[in-house]
Amino acid sequence: MAESRVVLVTGGSKGIGRAMAETFRDAGYRVAATYRSGGVPDGVLGVTCDITDQGQVDQAFSTIEAELGPVEILVANAGVTRDTLLMRMSDEDWDTVIDTNLTGTFRVVRRATRPMMRNRFGRVILISSVVGLLGSPGQINYAASKSALVGMARSLARELGSRNVTANVVAPGFIETDMTAVLPEETIAGYKSRIPTGRLGTVDDVAHAALFLAGEHAGYITGAVVPVDGGLGMGH
């Protein structure tokens, strides 16, 4: 069955990544998740991995391949933020975000797609952000890293489409997570006033978009950017 395919979710210990690991697990997939701290959901193969280290990436894939088999569906979710206004943003703030969100994703994608090409099946799903296309003050590094994933996915779609490997982007908007839970109520109200659906998204909203793109019925969708943002980023 297609649902028994092997899925890797990077950054699967909390928030959106954890929800995606749980959603794929509950749908019958064999799921592995990388994490740097914390843990992963029950029934998911947890592998510690810092995606800024190519050696750790290679080791993580070797472990997953030995335990579950080749990764057939990659959900590249791991990311960090170092928010501050441009004039205060240090080189370290920039390098940390780019090396994790962009270069780290590149490392994982490069390692994942080799077996996909050999097996003539693969789904690559990159988790971007509405911020990548809309922009956000104080997030120049984050926005740059997330918008770059669109170019990565679309180039990958053109390179690997003939091998039955698709590459798509999911762009979440403001999602209810531990990160948004600490924001002041007036800030949340401000977000909601800009979102046509009038609410923040849930981690399940994002997870089910990824689940659809991974499925058998999404084989003719590639190079797409799927916004999960309640309409916030329309036209961008």
UniProtKB/TrEMBL annotation:
Record InterPro entries: KR_dom, NAD(P)-bd_dom_sf, Sc_DH/Rdtase_CS, SDR_fam
Keywords for the protein's UniProt record, in alphabetical order: Oxidoreductase
Question: Which SMART domains does the record associate with it?
Answer: PKS_KR
- Presence of keyword rRNA-binding: no
Domain Ketoreductase per the UniProt entry, residue ranges: 5-178
Q: Which CDD domains match?
A: BKR_SDR_c
- Tell me a Gene Ontology molecular-function term this record carries: oxidoreductase activity, acting on the CH-OH group of donors, NAD or NADP as acceptor
Q: Spell out the family assignment given in the record's similarity comment.
A: Belongs to the short-chain dehydrogenases/reductases (SDR) family.
What PANTHER family does its record include? 3-OXOACYL-[ACYL-CARRIER-PROTEIN] REDUCTASE (PTHR42760:SF133), SHORT-CHAIN DEHYDROGENASES/REDUCTASES FAMILY MEMBER (PTHR42760)
What protein am I looking at?
Answer: Beta-ketoacyl-ACP reductase
Q: Which organism is it from?
A: Tessaracoccus lapidicaptus
Its ancestry begins with: Bacteria, Bacillati, Actinomycetota, Actinomycetes, Propionibacteriales
